[in-house]
User: Which sequence fits this backbone?
């Protein structure tokens, strides 16, 4: 039996087992995907012992994404540029790492708007953490024109600019509305707006009518940002699809078959999220 898992500290909130075990059953693969709580002090040992413990690999979530780089034998250009990884897999007896977050973000947009082109677009992103890095890396690879970055601390924003160059332009709160007027896409890459987190306080009425608004938060399924964008008649992309699409890449690496993100799977995970909110 092939096995994979997701590791984090804590880990009980992860919906990844629901997604991967759905695909295993659907594709009639004898396999199992588990949650494993791994303390930061045990991270390297756990990753080094994946094969001994019967795993093909693992997903890596908070707070391990950056520290996991030091635990693998090698990682690809995506992980190098983003400074973190979320997927570990075994290949030719080597432990390898990559990040699928950026690809998951873009594929989520394309699943909602199949003809959407990011090339030459001006993007406004809120946040400068690991998710922002992954999204910026993928968007720059796809030839966006400019990425405006607004972050709570200037230090992290400068870090992002240093990583990716002059297409990244740092925005101060005073210039927020001015830059929104020229943006084709607005992305929230922070946890603001998530249940249990502070709200995302931003006025979006200055966005052009053709703009697309995306949020990586998926609890709730529709954040205040997404609801406000809908009322303005803008294109919207909620966060749950990113979670599903980033999972596709890892599943293929571990189990050898590329699964599909279906409406049935989306509804299954969405129901689980709604049930969790009600408890």
Assistant:
């Amino acid at each position: 039996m092939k096995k994979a898992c997701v590791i984090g500290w804590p880990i009980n909130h992860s919906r990844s087992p629901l997604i991967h075990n759905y695909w295993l059953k659907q594709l009639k693969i004898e396999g199992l995907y588990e949650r494993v709580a791994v303390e930061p002090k045990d991270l390297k040992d756990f990753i080094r012992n994946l094969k001994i413990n019967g795993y093909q690999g693992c997903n890596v979530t908070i707070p391990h994404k950056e520290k996991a780089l030091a635990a693998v034998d090698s990682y690809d250009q995506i992980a190098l540029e983003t400074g973190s990884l979320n997927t570990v897999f075994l290949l030719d007896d080597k432990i390898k790492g990559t990040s699928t977050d950026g690809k998951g973000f873009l594929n989520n947009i394309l699943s909602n708007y199949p003809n959407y082109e990011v090339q030459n677009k001006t993007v406004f992103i809120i946040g400068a953490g690991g998710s922002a890095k992954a999204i910026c890396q993928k968007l720059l690879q796809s030839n966006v024109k400019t990425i405006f970055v607004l972050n709570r601390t200037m230090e992290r924003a400068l870090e992002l600019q240093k990583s990716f160059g002059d297409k990244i332009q740092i925005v101060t709160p005073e210039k927020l509305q001015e830059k929104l007027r020229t943006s084709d896409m607005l992305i929230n890459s922070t946890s603001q707006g998530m249940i249990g987190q502070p709200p995302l306080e931003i006025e979006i009425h200055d966005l052009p009518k053709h703009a697309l608004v995306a949020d990586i938060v998926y609890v709730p399924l529709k954040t205040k940002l997404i609801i406000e964008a809908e009322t303005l008649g803008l294109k919207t992309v909620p966060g749950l699809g990113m979670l599903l699409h980033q999972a596709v890449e890892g599943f293929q690496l571990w189990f050898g078959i590329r699964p599909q993100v279906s409406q049935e799977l989306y509804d299954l995970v969405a129901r689980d999220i709604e049930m969790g909110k009600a408890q």
